Amino acid sequence: MSDTTLHTPDTLRARSEEVSAYLPALLADAQHLAATVLLGEHGRKRAGQGDNFWQYRPAQPGDSRRQIDWRQSGRSDGHYVRETEWQAAQSVMLWVDAAGSMTYSGHKDRPSKLRRAQTLGMAIAILAQRAGERIGLMNLPEPPRSGKAQLLNMARALMDPSETADYGAPRPQVLPNGSRGVFFSDFMGDITATETALTTAADRGVKGTIVHVLDPTEESFPFDGRTVFQSMTGAVEFETMRAKTLRDAYLDRLAARKAALQTLCARTGWRYYCHHTDGSAEPALLWLYAALERAR
């Protein structure tokens, strides 16, 4: 199929309709999940350290008229917001790995790793938005923004991923200085990309968490006898007559990957959490919410 065929209006319209059909379900699941977390005094309403002037930035959709500095805006053709040191750091950037490996589910009655990551990502975005913080996706060119419109933009982007590789990699170059980051992935690919992302983030004063999303079959390796292992994109295939003999070596490599991720987080000031898709999403969200609070 040529590139021209891929981008015809009819194809784009059909894809848009397909994405729109799944949007309500994702948003409903995320909103229900977010409702399990009590915000309490999450939105900072008191003055304190970090309220000193930081910079002027162009006004964005979602900014209220009260935030606009009219004196500064009067000196130019645009509207500008006076940003304090505290406000400059109140951005939460998400990376939800949408590569082929994330679409895996070991059972028809449980969500794929991707769907669970999308739901958790949107739930934490909803909580951050309610607290007045700016939110964004690392795969979008736009900076993090506040407001409910941004939630819808993020949901659309999450449901229409452009990743076509077997394994994904975070993009550290779009993390604003002093922001907080959350990476959702199975981290099955080359760990070098994750190492680069976290060390680059740490150099910018970015703290955050990585959520290691796994299907329970990836933890137990319940395969025996003749088995054909195939990557989700079909790019890699391996057949064995004695799958059980691979179990110990596989589990050793998985344990080594977990240990490497935990060591990387400890070195960069990030936090690590492993979540399995056969469990409830609520404990993962509660842990993530608390971890982001500590990362301020």
Can you offer a commentary on this structure?
Residues 55-258 form the DUF58 domain. InterPro entries: DUF58. This is DUF58 domain-containing protein. The chain has helices at residues 3-6, 9-34, 70-73, 85-89, 113-130, 148-159, 191-203, 216-220, 247-268, 281-294; strands at residues 53-58, 80-84, 91-96, 134-137, 180-185, 207-214, 227-230, 237-240, 271-276. It is of the alpha/beta class and 296 residues long. The longest helix is centred in the N-terminal third of the chain and has 26 residues, at 9-34. The radius of gyration is 21 Å and the shape is elongated. The termini are far apart.
What radius of gyration results from the CA coordinates?
21 Å
Query: What is the CATH superfamily of the largest domain?
Result: von Willebrand factor, type A domain
Task: Work out the count of structural domains.
Answer: 2
What low-confidence regions span 5 or more consecutive residues with pLDDT below 50? 1-9, 11-20, 39-54
Supply the helix-strand structural class.
alpha/beta
Individual helix count: 10
Order of helices and strands: HHEHEHEHEHEHEHEEHEH
CATH-defined architecture of the largest domain: 3-Layer(aba) Sandwich
* Cα end-to-end separation: 48 Å
Shape: elongated
Bin the strand percentage: 15-25%
Protein name: DUF58 domain-containing protein
Organism: Thalassobacter stenotrophicus DSM 16310
InterPro entries: DUF58
Domain DUF58: 55-258
